[in-house]
Amino acid sequence: MEKSSKVSRRNFLASALTATSGLVLGNLASSSSLNATGILDETHTGGNSLSINIEDYPELKEAGGYKVLKEVAIGDMTDSIIIVRKSDTDFLVYSSICRHKKCNVKYKKERDLFVCPCHGSTYDINGKVIKGPSQGDIPKYKTKLINDTLEISN
Prior knowledge:
Largest sheet: 7 strands, antiparallel
Radius of gyration: 21 Å
Helix content: 10-25%
Distance between the termini: 67 Å
Number of helices: 1
Strand order of the largest sheet: 1-2-11-10-5-4-3
Structural class: alpha+beta
């Protein structure tokens, strides 16, 4: 007599959970090219750099402007960054992730500082921590402006 191959409820749920987890992780991995609104980002990566067209970001057209880009690929890593335009040709780009508890720092244009809203860590315009609890500086990226294209690299 042949045994019936019934699947227990426990085994079915375990298999369904495993399959769902795989789908979710696959979607997370592929979403790194999406911006915060879920739309494909208009940036382009090549090698170890990220290229953005300054004309696509009105906030960066004049000195003093800044823009946060979330989850962009720079080389083989993904990071959220703050781009600050200091002059017609000078841009500063830092990770926007606080070194203390990984909150997103905010740029305070009027004081030329980066401040973490979670616990108050403060960084100067060079990314150096000037007030804790953070013990480390925020990472700075290299920049090169070619016409209206800003190249960002690590």
